[in-house]
Design a protein that fits this description.
Mean pLDDT: 87
Distance between the termini: 169 Å
Low-confidence stretches: 1-62, 83-114, 118-129, 521-525
């Protein structure tokens, strides 16, 4: 065996030092030692495990020795690799041998962890192996050598010419040093070129004297572009032949109609190819500031407007003359505005006005309000002009003032002058005389058929023209006609898409460039009061100009002032709020603007300040509207959705479920005015839409177009009225069921609900929902608690619902993951809701109430509605049944109480008062704590001081505020109980003549509550300042007065009330005076006065007065005598207390 191999084996199986000693670095010999070697290997196998885990230098590819492909070679793997190498015929494994005595095999300078890494192998692979010259400058350099063996040979410089005097036989490189003996013969100069006429064969040095005979000329075509070009010809003989030249033509642009703006640089490309030409003529001359250049463009800056004109342009090329005809106009919108508003000044119109948005390229506002909204607008459209008003009143005003001047100016502008023929739709026939006085010819009661013979047409936006007739109007306009339209949509066009697509005035939007907003948007009857005696409105009122300006402002190309930012932002917001997504004229640039900005992120760590920057606000509104109008398959997962409503795990299964939906939904009567009584009913599905993902929902055919819709997202509060927001203002999406199968989604994700319009009777139907995520959903009395604990509460959606017959809580799933007993929680809420329904007297309650918890809500800590909204911090307590039974939640009860307030029985100023009756009821009767513990405002001391302060100030009903008013109700409840309040509330539900107005409401409540308590409560409520009428007080005289009310003797002095005065047992000299004390008053002493005349309310005018007794309720009698016979006497009863005297009506009798 070769000693090199033996050394390797020896190194692996024995100690390193011993192996080297045995080898003794002897010369390499081939000997037959196989048997001995195998024996030695066998004997040493037991020692292998005792070897240290050290790395040994050797040469082999690392990965061949790494069978596990883990980039680490262990000691054992090294041994196996080496043995494999030996079996593979000794494949270049060299560690050390006597061949290289200076490179002994040794332990590498590596780590000692028993593993050999790839980097360590790099060291090993560079370990010396093959010997040879390793100096690249040597003549025998060996690029394969790994060990320099000292054999390098280097070049020797010197003279290598054997004939030289100094030839060096050892030199390998000639260094130019050779020298020779001088030559015996001088050089011979001459022509050395053998082809020359004077070639000298003896010449040894050419002296440049060679001469030659001139060559024979070759005639032919020497032009390389010719068909018969001769590359050998030296003389052109004029024989060149060429193809006929290509004609030089002009390629005119197909676009022959051009409108440009005055005072702005413009370029119009007329010639699309690149020929050489000369200008022959332009007729007529181009507008000032414009030229036609040799590049085929009309360019320049026109200095003034010009009407539409046709221009003939002729140019000449080497081939021919070429002519085109174009139509060109130069518009100056500011000058147009001045024409329309000349001599107008301030204008005033009443009525409900829509806005007229200037959306087209050449549209502009005529009048704007203080909110930067265009009230009416004008536009160039094709070759014609149009003005649009949001109401009919400004169209043809004949009052003779500024408004009439505006009407006349407008007609003159659209007609491009006076003296034209004007057609008036019948609604505006009244303006005939005014037009004729200005020199116009007039056609009244004009129809579409009259448009061929007139210059201008005055009609209504609210026309009944069909699509064909609308098309005729459009053609009339773009062909050069003038058009004035006025009016606004009725309430049937309140929907954005319906108004945009179906309102007659908007059907021709793409031609007119003007858009009519929905009725009352956003003026709601404010009318118009505008001063037109100012400068032209900013160009940023124009929607397209506004979009371009904001984009340039954001990218720092221009800087808009604060005022300009506000105007441009409003223009964009008005467009986004009113135009469906398919209005490309606006939405394409708007979407490009949004894409350039990127999605705005809002969360609790990155709040948004509404109103701080108008551009930011408009961009936020733009993106919000975009995400509420895009089809489901174009939605994205909004970056803010992971913060709120929350992310859906990517691993969460997307499932398909068929859900049974109850399509019978009554809703609430509209008089429950704080409850969102007519809101669509939400039917839970237990499914969730992941942000930006498409969910497919399939309905029965009979459900399509019934008003049923799909709601994605429970959080339906809008935050646009807040100053700062911690989430996007609107994060839900509603999808109408317009087909059996629809695709739905929401950029923020959300719980999936099927919504049923109030008043529906659609029966039970199935809905199939696909590609949704399962959400925790517990139904009280239906869901098995063990299923809830084991599986349902752990479902992946971020929002959950726990539901009972009376109440549904929508809460973060994280808040119910540990909820073990949802039954106990919902038992409480079932009791609470039923108790509120019972107190209201409206039973059975026709809907299941809902509470949704949000990171931020539109108003207050909580607010009523369907659903009623509350903040997230309330959730832990609300879902904790034990805490609810022990402590309750006044705020939750309060908001649910709002949902039970009937409009007619909610007295002026008590919106936040009577809902507290429900809180008080639940705190005392359900939770079992007293009022003081239920709310800090209801401690005895605070109640007492509030009441005293109110009465000290004169018990002014205008100061009858929340907690003061609540005291009024509480005093009645604490004496009579809850039942009379329920009875009084219930009396309103079927009331045929509910009270209208504040006074009527106060009086009706006292009547109903008195009847319910079976006591006359008029004095009590009058003490509180109720404006009770005599009719109300008389109507209650059949009931006993509540004389035990807590105000008596404390904060209010009641006057006594007397009635049923009479005289009994009359004789000639005596009589018994009798009366009833209906109300004993406060600390009152009763007297009676009599005489032959009525002394009125003055004791001194009576014949006699007698003090009777301290007042009490009941029948009284007092006998008088010493009367004259046959005489008529008068008497009155008077009560005296701290208020003074209170007198009864007068009574009389006659003695016998």
């Amino acid at each position: 065996m070769n000693k090199s191999y033996f050394l390797i084996i020896c190194l692996l199986l024995t100690s390193f030092t011993g192996c080297i000693d045995d080898l003794a670095l002897e010369p390499v010999e081939d000997t037959d030692e196989t048997d001995n070697t195998e024996q030695e290997e066998s004997e040493d196998e037991e020692k292998t495990e005792e070897r240290p885990s050290e790395q040994w230098t050797f040469y082999r590819d690392f990965f061949e020795c790494d069978p596990n492909n883990d980039s680490i070679v262990t000691y054992g793997e090294f041994v196996d690799c080496l043995n494999m190498d030996l079996m593979n015929d000794g494949e270049s494994v060299v560690a050390a041998s006597s061949e290289f005595p200076n490179e002994v095999f040794s332990i590498a300078d590596l780590d000692m962890d028993g593993n050999l890494t790839s980097s360590e192998f790099d060291y090993i692979k560079n370990y010396p192996h093959e010997g040879g010259c390793m100096d690249s400058d040597a003549t025998n350099y060996n690029s394969m050598a790994e060990v320099d063996d000292g054999s390098c040979e280097y070049p020797v410089e010197g003279c290598t010419n054997l004939t030289a005097n100094n030839f060096n036989q050892n030199a390998t490189v000639d260094d130019g040093s050779c020298n020779f003996d001088p030559s015996e013969q001088d050089p011979i100069e001459g022509c050395t070129n053998s082809t020359a006429n004077n070639f000298n064969q003896n010449a040894t040095v050419d002296n440049g004297s060679c001469t030659f005979d001139p060559p024979e000329p070759i005639e032919g075509c020497t032009n390389s572009t010719a068909n018969n070009y001769n590359q050998n010809a030296t003389v052109d003989d004029g024989s060149c032949i060429f193809d006929p030249p290509e004609p030089v033509v002009i390629v005119w642009s197909n676009n022959t109609v051009h409108a440009i703006s005055a005072n702005k640089t413009a370029t119009i490309q007329l010639i699309e190819n690149d020929p050489n030409f000369t200008i022959v003529s332009i007729e007529p001359s181009l507008p000032d500031g414009l030229t036609f250049d040799t590049n085929g463009n009309i360019s320049g800056t026109p200095t003034t407007r010009s009407v539409w004109s046709s221009y003939e342009i002729t140019v000449n090329t080497t081939s021919d003359n070429f002519t085109t005809n174009i139509s060109l106009a130069v518009h100056d919108l500011d000058a147009d505005w001045r024409d329309i508003t000349t001599d107008v000044g301030t204008i005033n119109y009443g009525g409900l006005h829509s806005l007229i948005l200037p959306l087209g390229e050449w549209a502009f506002p005529i009048a704007v309000d203080s909110g930067n909204r265009p009230l009416f607008s004008a536009a160039h459209s094709g070759f014609g002009r149009i003005i649009g008003y949001g109401h009919e009143s400004p169209v043809a005003n004949q009052d003779g003032g500024n408004e009439t001047q505006l009407s006349l100016n407008a007609i003159e502008w659209v007609c491009s002058g006076t003296g034209k023929w004007v057609a008036l739709e019948s609604s505006f026939n009244h303006f005939e005389d005014e037009l004729k006085a200005e020199g116009y010819s007039v056609t009244t009661s004009a129809t579409i058929d009259d448009l061929n013979n007139v210059d201008c047409f005055v009609t209504k936006f609210t026309n009944l023209y069909n699509d064909t007739e609308n098309s005729i109007i459009e053609n009339f306009l773009i062909s050069g006609g003038g058009l004035i339209m006025g009016g606004n949509p009725d309430w049937s066009y309140s929907d954005v898409a319906n108004n945009a697509n179906n309102y007659p005035g908007n059907k021709i939007l793409r031609t007119t460039g003007l858009f009519v907003t929905r009725l009352g948007f956003p003026l709601y009857g404010m009318g118009v009061n505008v001063d037109l005696d100012t400068e032209a409105p900013s160009p940023f009122y124009r929607t397209l100009t506004a979009v371009d300006a904001i984009e340039k402002h954001i990218t720092n190309i221009i800087t808009l002032s604060d005022s300009e930012q506000s105007i441009a932002s409003t223009a964009i917001s008005l467009a986004t709020d009113n135009l469906p997504i398919d209005f490309d004229i606006i939405w394409i640039p708007l979407r490009e603007l949004s894409d350039g900005v990127g999605w705005l992120e809002i969360n609790s760590s990155n709040i948004f300040n509404l109103g701080a920057d108008p551009i930011d606000d408009s961009l936020l509104n733009l993106q919000q509207v975009l995400l509420t109008k895009l089809p489901a398959d174009e939605l994205i997962a909004h970056p803010s959705s992971s913060d709120f409503s929350g992310a859906v795990p990517a691993s969460a299964p997307r499932v398909a479920r068929t859900i049974s939906i109850d399509g019978n939904y009554e809703g609430l009567p509209s008089d429950f005015k704080f409850s969102q009584a007519s809101a669509d009913g939400r039917m839970s599905t237990g499914l969730y839409a992941a942000p930006g993902e498409v969910v497919t929902v399939t309905f029965p055919d009979n459900i399509v177009d019934t008003g049923v819709n799909v709601l994605i997202g429970a959080h339906t509060d809008s935050l646009w009225d807040k100053d700062t927001i911690s989430r996007h203002p609107i994060i839900y999406r509603v999808w109408s069921v317009s087909n059996q199968t629809i695709e739905v989604g929401n950029a923020w994700g959300g719980s999936i609900y099927i919504r049923i319009p109030a008043g529906s009777s659609l029966g039970i139907f199935d809905v199939t929902i696909e590609q949704a995520v399962e959400a925790p959903h517990y139904v009280h009395g239906v869901t098995d608690v063990s299923d809830w604990q084991d599986t349902i509460r752990h479902l992946p959606a971020p929002w959950a619902e726990i539901e009972s017959d009376q109440f549904i809580l929508t809460v973060p799933s994280s808040e119910i993951r540990e909820l073990d007993d949802p039954d106990y929680t919902m038992n409480f809420w079932d009791e609470a809701l039923q108790m509120e329904h019972n107190l209201s007297g409206f039973t059975p309650w026709p809907r299941v109430e809902r509470a949704v918890f949000d990171i931020q809500i539109s108003g207050g800590t909580m607010h009523s509605g369907y659903p009623f909204m509350a903040h997230l911090p309330s959730v832990p307590a609300v879902v904790n049944g034990t805490q609810m039974y022990e402590s309750g939640d006044w705020g939750m009860f309060h908001e649910l109480g709002h949902n039970h307030q009937w409009s007619a029985s909610t007295l002026p100023g008590t919106q936040e008062t009577t809902c507290n009756l429900f809180s008080a009821k639940l705190m005392t009767d359900l939770v079992g704590i007293d009022l003081a513990e239920g709310h800090s405002k209801l401690s005895p001391s605070k109640r007492e001081s509030r009441t005293e302060d109110y009465f000290d100030a004169g018990s002014d009903i205008d100061q009858w505020s929340v907690w003061v008013a609540f005291e009024t109700y509480l005093q009645v409840q604490e004496y009579f109980g809850w039942e009379p309040i329920t009875e009084a509330l219930a009396a309103y539900y079927d009331m045929e003549d509910p009270p209208g107005g504040s006074s009527a409401q106060f009086n009706r409540w006292v009547l109903e509550l008195s009847e319910a308590t079976n006591h006359n409560l008029a004095p009590f409520h009058e003490a509180w300042g109720f404006p009770l009428t005599p009719e109300t007080k008389d109507a209650l005289l059949h009931l006993p007065v509540w004389v035990d009310d807590p105000l008596r003797g404390w904060v209010y002095e009641y006057n006594p009330i007397f009635r049923n005065l009479s005289a009994e047992n009359i004789t000639s000299s005596s009589a018994d005076l009798e009366w009833d004390v209906y109300d004993n008053g406060t600390n009152t002493m009763i007297s009676v006065c009599w005489g032959v005349t009525d002394g009125g309310a003055d004791r001194d005018l009576w014949y006699s007065c007698a003090e009777v007794d301290s007042s009490y309720v009941g029948h009284w009698s007092y006998g008088i005598d010493s009367l004259a016979s046959g005489t008529t006497y008068y008497f009155r009863v008077v009560g005296q207390n701290n208020n003074g005297d209170t007198w009864s009506e007068v009574a009389s009798f006659t003695t016998s």
